[in-house]
Every structure is written in C-alpha cells, then in structure tokens.
Specification:
Elements (H helix, E strand, L loop, with lengths): L4 H4 L3 H10 L1 E5 L4 E3 L7 E7 L1 E7 L5 E8 L3 E2 L1 H6 L6 E4 L3 E7 H10 L1 H27 L2 H11 L12 E3 L2 H8 L3 H13 L3 E4 L2 E4 L2 H6 L11
Antiparallel strand pairs: 1-8, 2-7, 3-6, 3-8, 4-5, 4-7, 9-11, 10-11
Helix pairs in contact: 2-4, 5-6, 6-8, 7-8
C-alpha cells in the first residue's frame, strides 16, 4: 500500500482502517484468488508475483484478458456493479495478493474524494485499454498485437512502477495475445531486431515505448524511428 497512488492520498485514519481490513493471501502457480461466478466482494491488489484474469471456452481453450504484476489493483468494475465475477483470477507464478473487502471499498468511496478520483481514472483507463485491445485484435497482425500488448503493460496508471522492464515468459505472453509460444518468440525477435525491446530470461526490457505504441507492419514507418 505504501507504493499505491490511491493509498498515499488517504488520511492517516482512512489508511489505518483500510490496512486493518485487507487480507493477504499467498498463491502458488495455478492457485485461484477468485473464481468466475464468485460474488465480487473484494478489490484485488497484487503485492508481488504475476496474476492473470482468464477464462476457458466451452472447448477448453484458454482466453487471457489481462495480466497484473506487483502494485496493480483491479476488479473495481465488478464491485461497483455488484455482479458475479466474470473471470478467474489465477497466479502465473508464486504471488501474494491483497484483498480489500467491498465494505471498505465503498466506505473509501464515501469518505475520500481522492479515492473516488483514482477509481474514476482507473475505470476510464481500463476501458480505453480494452477498446484498444479489441481494435488491435481485429486489425493488427500478430507482431503488431505483441508490440501493442507490451506497450499496454507499461501503462502508468494501470501498471505503475514497472520501469520499462516486463517479467513475463513467452508462454504467458502467448496466453495474453492468443498465439503459440513459438510464434510469440518469432514476434519478439522481430521487435528486438529493430531495437524496440531487448530480451532476457523471462524478461523483456522496452527500449522504445513510443515505437511499440506506433508499431504497424502495414505502414512500416516504425523501422526508421
């Protein structure tokens, strides 16, 4: 909480109340923090590790909507609508999650203008991210989808404090983009050739964030940037 933007804007009394109600859970890879269909009665924060929001199709095909590294908070939309959770929340590696009860979440909305503003911005940015992902999925080839997905994972509001370094495996990125690990590897190699990223073991360092955002193989101006 010490590094969360919303927490730093609370009064001492509000922060103390939030701290005393939040539960922390340890998760091993594959463990669920929440299941699809569960009541949306907690706001989820990632203390450390990597979490994904995902579902399985009727044929068993995995669909990943987003991944959440340390210092991310998510699930505010479902709490506000008070609807059953529409996705599974699963650990991709050893992780710890903070679970804020809905009662505390709504109390902060009632008592903190700064918290309201944070949630409003969070919802707006999340909507923009998913609209962009929908557009990229329909219009872009795989290399461009990978580039835009990596750029989205450095969003300053939704994924703070990443410092242009993304800890993710090719398999995890493949679930997020919807492609095989081998095809993801080819796309990353292409992005590395034009010096947009540098690859390491389970780590991608972004060298040119604007180049990733503007990447479009149909209009290869990015090659001269």
């Amino acid at each position: 909480m010490a590094t969360s933007t919303w927490a730093s804007a609370l009064s001492a009394a509000q922060l103390q109340r939030a701290r005393t109600t939040i539960m922390v859970r340890e998760l091993e890879p594959g463990n669920y923090a929440c299941h699809k269909g569960d009541p949306s009665n907690v706001w989820v924060g990632v203390v450390d590790g990597l979490i994904k929001a995902a579902n399985l199709s009727e044929t068993g095909r995995p669909v990943t909507f987003a991944t959440f590294p340390a210092n991310c908070w998510f699930g505010e939309g479902s709490i506000l609508k008070q609807e059953p959770r529409k996705y599974n929340v699963v650990a991709l590696r050893d992780s710890r999650v903070a679970l804020m009860p809905a009662a505390t979440f709504f109390w902060l909305l009632d008592t903190s203008i700064a918290f309201n503003r944070f949630i409003l911005n969070q919802l707006n940015e999340r909507l923009g991210q998913f609209l962009g992902a929908f557009e990229h999925d329909r219009l872009d080839d795989l290399d461009a989808r990978v580039a835009h997905t990596l750029a989205d994972m450095l969003h300053p509001q939704l994924y703070p404090s990443r410092e242009y370094r993304i800890e993710i495996s090719n398999e995890e990125l493949g679930h997020l983009v919807g492609a095989s690990r081998q095809r993801i590897s080819q796309a990353l190699q292409e992005l590395e050739k034009i010096e947009l990223i540098a690859m390491g073991y389970r780590t991608i360092t972004v060298l040119n964030i604007e180049g990733l955002r503007d990447f479009d193989t149909r209009f290869p101006a990015h090659l001269t940037k």
